[in-house]
Structure formats: C-alpha cells, structure tokens
Amino acid sequence: MVFYFTSSSVIVLEYSVKQKVFEKMPVLRMLQRVMGQMLQSPACSSRAAALPGRVLGTSPWQIPANANCHSASLSETDRPRILITGGLGQLGVGLAKLLRKQFGKDNVILSDIKKPSDQVFHSGPFIHSDVLDYKHLREIVVNHRITWLIHYSAVLSAVGEANVPLAKAVNITGVHNVLDVALEHNLRLFVPSTIGAFGPTSPRDPTPDLCIQRPRTIYGVSKVHAELMGEYYYHRYGLDFRCLRYPGIISADSEPGGGTTDYAVQIFHDAIKNGKFECNLKPSTRLPMMYIDDCLRATLEFMEAPIESLSSRTYNINAMSFCPEELAQEVLKHIPEFQITYNVDSVRQAIGRYIIANPVKPRLCFTLH
C-alpha cells in the first residue's frame, strides 16, 4: 500500500496509473516551487533581480488553505497535544507550523538538542530535550499532557556511516525510548522510515510495502529495526504506531542534514549563491524525491487517519525520481550560467546504489473522507 495525496483533503491509501500521478507534479514544477521560494528570500534578492519573469508554478499537490478544515472545529480538549523530537531538522519546523495551524500554537511542542533560531523560538513552544534521556522525555510527556509523539530525531545515512556508534545510540536507543514512553502513556507514535531501509536484494520498480529489505547502512538497518519494533509493539501491546518510508525531501528553507539525497537540496543553494555546484554522486544516480509540502501534508493526513483504516504499520510513500544530470538540466533553464561538476564520494555513491528508485506498487485506490 502506498500513501499518496490529491488536491482535496482526503487520504489516498492505494492508487493505480502511476504515470498519471507523476504527470501531476513533474520535476519542473517542483523546481519552480523551490526556486521561487529561494528567489523570494532576502538573501537571494540580488539574484532575483537578475532573473525577471520567473513564476512559482502551481500544482495540485500543494496543501490547500482549507486542508483538513475539520480539525479546526475540534474543541480544545479534543485536539491532540503533540511533541516533535528532532524538531529543528529539515521537517520538524515545517510540520510544527502545519500542525499549529490545525490544532493551535500551544498544542505543538518542538524539541531538540540544538539551540533554535529566534524565529523558531518565538513561533511556539520549544523544549531542549535529548531522546537518549528517557526520564526527561517522560517528564515532558506527563507535564505537557502529550497525546501524539512525532519522532524525527535521527542520524542520517552518510553521517551515520562516518559515526556508527552515534547512529546506533540515536537511531536505535532513541527509538526504544520513544516506544516505551508512548506505550506507558498511550500515545499515537509516528516514526518515519526511509527508502534507505531497502537493500540491493529488495525487489525494484515496483517495490511493495512488505518485501525483503536487508539494507547495508547503519541508518537503513536502524530504520528496519524501528519498523519491526513498532509493529511488534502494535501487535503485542496495542500501541498506535505509524510509519512512512520517506524518499529524499526537497526544500528551500533548510540546509542539508547529511543524507545521500541531500544533493537535491544543496544544488539550489549553490546555484543561487555561486552559480555552480559540485555533486558527490554520479550523473545517472536515480533516487526518489518528494517536495517538502507534499511530505508534510502526507504526514499530517496519515496521523489523522483512524487506526481502524490502516491495514499495516508501515507504508511506502512516493512522488518522483530523477538523477543529478536531469536536475541540473532543469536548473539551467532558470540559471543559464549554472555549472555542475562531479566529484563522486564512494560512501554516498555506494549508499545510492542500494536505494530503490521507485518504491511504488500501482493498485486500485480508495479514499477516506
């Protein structure tokens, strides 16, 4: 089963006709959206002046202004109280903004071990918290009456290969801690997985939700561990555990965090600032990607889905796939002087070989309203 989303506020649980879905959001439209955001930022004002006529493309995949409007009608006592761990990473701040719009500013708490920017700090509740400190994690859940826990704390693929002990601690022990605190306090728990949870022996194009995985990175291994532990806690104890296998996430607002797909974020920053980019993957390395707004919307709607509507604990999620060479060609359409060079990193390239390009299994679709 694959989670995918239409322009209306419904959850698409299974779908068919993959090519029609891809046509809704081609790489060019995604690029226009990211470039448009970056060109509008103050740091890029000089570049924007030199590039008149660039318009942010529209897409049926954007989150509509009234998405999930039924949530806004919930009473204060019925609204979830949400804790996001690892909240200062690529996804946490954006998801917090979306959740606060739905459920209220004070009902969503960001946490991290890093110091937040002034903008993030003043946008809503923030708590300094280390996921390896179980006692403090439990205190936060109790004192703030948390009902949903979204666990974004993780050491990503390339960084994890450079520091395996740290990856084991954060990605495995950290998951054990959130599983236990979620079970103890009856929370709805979301732990994202990754396309890196697949390995060289996994079936390709399409890749079903349930198949052989056997990843060869500590990041992938730890995510498979999280998937299986969450499934075990669901069947053994009834924990409401939920998991989506994220592809590479593309955004204009955040810096890369050490993942193999991060070149698709860095290329925009470097193209705007310097007009050139050095890629650490081969030109033809095709990887699955997703625009951040679509990822956040998918996560929100997945979290809102009634537990009885879910037939599994873990689902693939997909949007598009492309390689560095193709992305560079699209950047050239916006910045004609852009130059790309390739300095292949053996570790990242090895990781890229194991990643499934299209983790999708086309099927019939049905919706939950």
UniProtKB/TrEMBL annotation:
EC identifiers of the protein: 1.1.1.103
Name of the protein described by the UniProt record: L-threonine 3-dehydrogenase, mitochondrial
Molecular function as annotated in GO: L-threonine 3-dehydrogenase activity
Domain (NAD-dependent epimerase/dehydratase) ranges: 82-317
Taxonomic placement: Eukaryota, Metazoa, Chordata, Craniata, Vertebrata
Family: Belongs to the NAD(P)-dependent epimerase/dehydratase family.
One biological process term in Gene Ontology: L-threonine catabolic process
Function recorded in the entry: Catalyzes the NAD(+)-dependent oxidation of L-threonine to 2-amino-3-ketobutyrate, mediating L-threonine catabolism.
InterPro entries documented for this protein: Epimerase_deHydtase, NAD(P)-bd_dom_sf, NAD(P)_epim/dehydratase
Provenance organism: Myotis brandtii
Domain of life of the organism encoding this protein: Eukaryota
Pathway assigned in UniProt: Amino-acid degradation; L-threonine degradation via oxydo-reductase pathway; glycine from L-threonine: step 1/2
Catalysed conversion reaction: L-threonine + NAD(+) = (2S)-2-amino-3-oxobutanoate + NADH + H(+)
